[in-house]
Write a structure and sequence with these properties.
Blueprint (H helix, E strand, L loop, with lengths): L5 E5 L2 H4 L12 H6 L17 H14 L4 E5 L2 H4 L9 H16 L3 E7 L5 H5 L7 H17 L5 E6 L1 H11 L9 H24 L5 E7 L3 E3 L4 H24 L4 H9 L11 H7 L4 E6 L3 E4 L22 E2 L3 E3 L18 H12 L5 E6 L15 H19 L4 E7 L18 E3 L8 E3 L1 H13 L6
Helix pairs in contact: 3-5, 7-9, 8-9, 9-12, 13-14, 14-15
The chain binds 6-O-phosphono-beta-D-galactopyranose.
The site of 6-O-phosphono-beta-D-galactopyranose (BGP) has 14 residues, from loops.
Length: 467
């Protein structure tokens, strides 16, 4: 396996592929949701998206020409198994074979996510991640992917963001199934963690030699002030966002005070079976994938209510985030924020990485996503995204500092390779190193200033990058 530092960028199937009815693909919950009347915030779909399904060669070539040596993408479960279970679909497998072979042809290391938000619709209708049956179904799907692609793919991700996805599905309620029930959220997340642990063990049982991990959106969390109440709020926010995922996949068990809190909330936890303890303990990851975007300021709750309202309009209007009985999130008015309320704070990655080093000293980290979404407009055919360069540059420098201070980071991926569909934020919230002109017939690709910046940065830092 290559020992080079992974310098890459990332996408996910539903956000870029398009080709939603091609190659025998089945329908996913996102296909159905985006075509339903529930999709009313920014009513667009991923039917065509960037047409990566047909233009992957161009995208991978541009990535390689931009000096990158790694590409993170996800497999659509519905291309491999159109209804989620049953016979494998050759056309879908062939598509990913072409994608992987193209990466290798350009000397780009593929880092492959098995599950990134898009669930086969029949499984979604049977309860999705709330239904324990999905653990076996996911495992069968993972087995097929390992068998078909494991000879060439050496970096795997079991599941993308168990925290953020379930928070949107069952907290904000802006992703399908669009409900607000934290009790259901914890149940769904538990099955994701179980499925991930099983897949890690299976990967090893099959004799694979690569690295398999889970991608966790993780947050540096600071106290609103130095009071003991704020300190307690920090711990609860850590449990809520970070430890409910990271402790489980790295240490192989849930934190005691997390389980206590769920009991205190009065939730039915009968889905947590004692036989699962061993599954978690055995299925710990080879590396932890970190999606780094935001910093949080934890404070005690005001009253006992829960308030969860997402800002998907990019209009700068953010409601206070509060989980009754747990904590609330404060705001530092002096910090710069995007119109979607994300704080710009590159040095916070240093704190996060040093915390991870303390908590999980033997587990390497790969930064699997880092980026900033905003409205980008071409000026005379170019995209001058200096704000993105500042942001990414700050992150890379602070990551380097954390590495100098002993944190074992193996790779860095910008979100995203090119502009992609931003879930229910639509297409106007752009993250790409490459601009997509969605109005042009050929979905023209235009490298942004940040694309060239990244190329130079990689050259300057070198492929070894302390490796
Ligand atoms: C992560 C997801 C990505 C991507 C990114 C930006 O949570 O893994 O799929 O979308 O965030 O988020 P958004 O597009 O919602 O702004």
């Amino acid at each position: 396996m290559s020992r080079n530092f992974l310098w890459g960028s990332a996408t996910a199937a539903y956000q870029c592929e398009g080709g939603w009815r091609e190659g025998n693909k089945g329908l996913s919950n996102w296909d159905v949701f985006c075509h339903s009347e529930k999709n009313d915030v920014n009513p667009v779909t991923g039917d065509v998206a960037c047409d990566h399904y047909h233009r992957y060669e161009e995208d991978i070539r541009m990535l390689a020409e931009g000096g990158q040596n790694a590409y993170r993408f996800s497999i659509a479960w519905t291309r491999i198994l159109p209804t989620g279970v049953g016979e494998r679909n050759r056309e879908g497998i062939d598509f990913y074979n072409r994608l992987i072979d193209t990466c290798l042809q350009y000397q780009v290391e593929p880092l492959v996510t098995l599950y990134h938000y898009d669930l086969p619709q029949p499984l979604f209708e049977a309860g999705g991640w709330e239904n324990r049956r999905i653990v076996e179904q996911y495992l069968e799907y993972a087995r097929i992917c390992f068998e078909e692609f494991g000879d060439r793919v050496k970096y795997w991700v079991t599941i993308n963001e168990p925290n953020y996805e379930t928070l949107c599905c069952y907290g904000y309620g802006n992703y399908p199934p669009n409900v607000q029930s934290l009790e259901r959220r914890w149940r769904a997340m538990y099955h994701m963690m179980l499925a991930s642990a099983r897949a890690v063990s299976l990967y090893r049982e099959l004799g694979n030699q690569g690295m398999i991990g889970l991608v966790s959106d993780s947050y540096p969390i600071v106290a609103g002030d130095i009071s003991p109440e704020c300190e307690k709020a920090v711990r609860k926010a850590e449990l809520f966002f970070n430890l409910c995922v990271n402790d489980v996949c790295v240490k192989g068990s849930y934190p005691e005070d997390f389980l206590e809190q769920l009991k205190e909330d009065g939730y039915d936890l009968s889905y947590m079976l004692s036989e699962d303890l061993e599954v978690f303990a055995k299925g710990t990851v080879d590396y932890l994938g970190i999606n780094a975007y935001n910093r949080y300021i934890a404070e005690p709750c005001e009253g006992d209510g829960t308030n969860l309202k997402a800002n998907n309009k990019g209009n700068g209007e953010n409601e206070k985030f509060q989980i009754g009985g747990w904590f609330s999130l404060g705001e530092d008015k002096n910090m710069e924020k995007t119109p979607w309320g994300m704080e710009i704070c590159p040095q916070s990655i240093y704190d996060l990485l040093m915390t991870l080093k303390e908590l999980y000293p033997r587990t390497p980290v790969i930064i699997t996503e880092n980026g900033v979404g905003n409205y980008d407009e071409p000026v005379e055919g170019q995209i001058h995204d200096a704000y993105r360069i500042d942001y990414l540059n700050g992150y890379v420098d602070w990551i380097e500092k954390a590495m100098e201070d002993g944190c074992d980071v193996r790779g860095y991926f910008v979100w995203s390779t090119m502009d992609v569909y931003s879930w229910i934020n639509g297409y106007k919230k752009r993250y790409g190193l490459v601009y997509i002109d969605y109005d042009s017939e050929e979905l023209r690709r235009i490298p942004k200033d940040s694309y060239y910046w990244y190329k130079n940065k990689i050259q300057e830092k070198g492929m070894k990058f302390h490796g």
